[in-house]
From TrEMBL:
GO terms for molecular function: acid phosphatase activity; metal ion binding. It is an enzyme of class 3 (hydrolase). It comes from Solanum lycopersicum (Tomato). Keywords: Glycoprotein, Hydrolase, Secreted, Signal, Zinc. Its main location: secreted. Pfam families: fn3_PAP (PF17808), Metallophos (PF00149), Metallophos_C (PF14008), Pur_ac_phosph_N (PF16656). It catalyses: a phosphate monoester + H2O = an alcohol + phosphate. Residues 527-586 form the Purple acid phosphatase C-terminal domain. CDD domains: MPP_PAPs. It is found in: Secreted. This is Purple acid phosphatase. Residues 46-164 form the Purple acid phosphatase Fn3-like domain. Residues 171-275 form the Purple acid phosphatase N-terminal domain.
Length: 611
């Protein structure tokens, strides 16, 4: 009876999910949870091994599940739960989308029992290998019969845990507010009343110093709605950020994360390294990778969020393999697709750690991070699952003046990047519009010739079917407000996510191509090249059958773009597929400073005829 009572909270989680209707495409929505019952079966079992993880210092390990039942079916499935033993009594009472008993968390992921066991239905025995990451709590695994339409909880496993669930994990580098500052953000289970967080760092093989870190966290009251405040809630731990200042340009630094416990003990991460950013205008080889809408994917094949990011692991893999040839990464919105299921943020930061721990990883805000009704977002939809920007603004650092106003600029050598927040109003006369104009106007194009505009939603041009159906071929009102800024300040390239495919336009202004050349641009562009790079990993979006004169290259596949500035006059742009890392579209720009100064339509200041 005691075991039965302990299992009820797990069952109650499933029942509660019945009321979460803001994201029907979550995989647990496939389960007819209103039919779920507890049916513990003495003949059924599930065992996880090893039960202790991380003894070798790893924070990502594989475990084996062995399970069986006396009445097997191909519809049987296994759910992963963390914390392992959770009680409804600890839930926040606010949950107007479900009825009591109230629930604390949802399963992290699930898998069918016969996935790697084709004889499961005949033998009633099976096994699975699952990957777990350190997420500041323990794990248990539940076996269900009855399929997804009539689930019955028949067995629950032993507990599995990491040796130090509070360890400092998943460092995320980002550029600071000045060119010679790098920030390091990481997650741990240590509050500031338990330990002092810091980074120990210095030049490679040089003297090391320590910089303190600030600490933030998130509670339910800072989120906007369900499922983030209800069944999707999971304690996100403590988020620490340290500022490493007065860096020498292009110098390699090493660093490690530390926590000094109040008993004098030190907790350390492994050692990492990064290369400091070049001085603005500095001429050196500078390589930038940009994509949107990647999300996360489970390496063990488990079912999470309707398998919505099938290309995510490939994109991550290709970037990791080429990391020695990449200096900075921009992920322009729709970062995790957690949509209110907070455990997914840990899983994403674990997936991209080999990238974020080595090069600056700059993010932009997308609809799946920010949008929620009556929360100040420009769009009143529920795409964030109640997160309303809080997770993105806390889990990652970016050099904005106000973290809720997700627009900012950052320099990298010969590049100036102006990053927009499409989930806040960008139209003429708004605070963001004034910021963008200042970002464009304040750059010295003789020293930083490559002016790049980044945003999540397509404020320029796209042949995505839903934009074409609207007749706008881009976000309504996007070009109307911003194209005169792009033209006036001669923005070279504008890159977007949101539409899950790849597309490149000609240099264009007011729907008219300003050059006929397609791959090798010499001299003034006379317009802006618009690129959709939303194929980072999420489910692909079809193109319209309508043909436009401005669309030069389309690809219905997963991929990312890379820009290489060789000097102040030569830039190479490449589109690479995530499946093989090969280049499938490219162009180059070759010009001098006088070509940037040259007059074109609507880009010249007034001139006097006086001598």
């Amino acid at each position: 009876m005691k075991t039965f009572v302990m299992l009820l909270p797990i069952l109650w989680v499933l029942v509660a999910l019945q009321g979460v209707t803001s994201h029907e495409d979550h995989p647990l929505a496939r389960i007819a949870v209103h039919n779920a019952i507890a049916a513990l079966d003495a003949r059924a079992y599930i065992k996880a091994s090893p039960s202790v993880l991380g003894s070798n210092g790893l924070n990502q390990e594989w475990i084996t599940l062995e399970y069986g039942t006396g009445n097997p079916s191909n519809d049987d499935w296994v759910g992963v739960f963390s914390p392992a033993n959770f009680s409804a009594a600890t839930c926040d009472p606010e949950n107007n989308m479900v009825t009591p008993p109230l629930l604390c968390t949802a399963p992290i992921k699930y898998q069918f029992a016969n996935r790697s066991n084709p004889n499961y239905k005949r033998t009633g025995k099976g096994s699975l290998k699952l990957q777990l990451i350190n997420q500041r709590s323990d794990f248990s695994f539940a076996l269900f019969s009855g399929g997804l339409r009539n689930p019955k909880l028949v067995a629950v496993s032993n507990t599995v845990a990491f040796t130090n669930p509070n360890a400092p994990l998943y460092p995320r580098l980002a550029q600071g507010k000045t060119w010679n500052e790098m920030t390091v953000t990481w997650t741990s289970g240590y509050d500031i009343n338990e330990a002092e967080p810091f980074v120990e760092w210095g030049p490679q093989r040089g003297q090391q110093t320590r910089s303190p870190a600030g600490t933030l966290t998130i509670d339910r009251s800072s989120l906007c709605g369900a499922p983030a405040r209800t069944v999707g809630w999971r304690d996100p731990g403590f988020i620490h950020t340290s500022f490493l200042k007065e860096l020498w340009p292009n110098l390699v630094y090493t660093y490690k994360l530390g926590h000094k416990l109040f008993n004098g003990t030190y907790i350390w991460s492994q050692m990492y390294k990064f290369k400091a950013s070049p001085y603005p205008g500095q001429s050196s080889l500078q390589r930038v990778v940009i994509f949107g809408d990647m999300g996360k994917e489970e390496a063990d094949g488990s079912i999470v969020y309707n398998q919505y990011q099938p290309g995510s692991l490939n994109t991550t893999k290709q970037i990791i393999e080429d990391l020695k040839n990449i200096d900075i990464v921009f992920h322009i919105g729709d970062i995790v697709y957690a949509n209110g299921y907070l455990s997914q943020w840990d899983q994403f930061t674990s997936q991209v750690e080999p990238i974020t721990s080595r090069v600056p990883y700059m993010i932009a805000s997308g609809n799946h991070e920010r949008d929620w009704p009556d929360s100040g977002s420009f769009y009143g939809k529920k795409d964030s699952g109640g997160e309303c920007g809080v997770l993105a603004q806390t889990m990652f650092y970016f050099p904005a003046e106000n973290r809720d106003k997700f627009w900012y600029s950052t320099d990298y050598g010969m590049f100036r990047f102006c990053i927009a927040d499409t989930e806040h109003d960008w139209r003429e006369g708004t605070e963001q519009y004034k910021f963008l104009e200042h970002c464009f106007a304040s750059v010295d194009r003789q020293k930083q010739p490559w002016l790049i505009f980044l945003a999540h939603r397509v404020l320029g041009y796209s042949s995505g079917d839903f934009y074409a159906d609207e007749g706008s071929f881009g976000e309504p009102m996007g070009r109307d407000s911003l194209q005169k800024l792009w033209q006036k300040y001669k923005v070279d390239i504008a890159i977007y996510g949101h539409v899950h495919n790849y597309e490149r336009t000609c240099p264009i202004y007011q729907n008219i191509c300003t050059m006929t050349e397609k791959n090798s641009y010499k001299g003034p562009l006379n317009g802006t090249i618009h690129v959709v790079a939303g194929g980072g990993g999420a489910g692909l979006v079809k193109f319209t059958s309508l043909q436009t004169k401005w669309s030069i290259f389309k690809d219905y596949d997963y991929g990312f773009v890379k820009m290489t500035a060789f000097d102040h006059s030569n830039l190479l742009f490449e589109y690479k597929k995530s499946s093989d890392g090969k280049v499938y579209d490219s162009f180059n720009i070759s010009r001098d400073y006088r070509d940037i100064l040259a007059c074109t339509v609507d880009s010249c200041p007034s001139m006097t005829l006086a001598s």
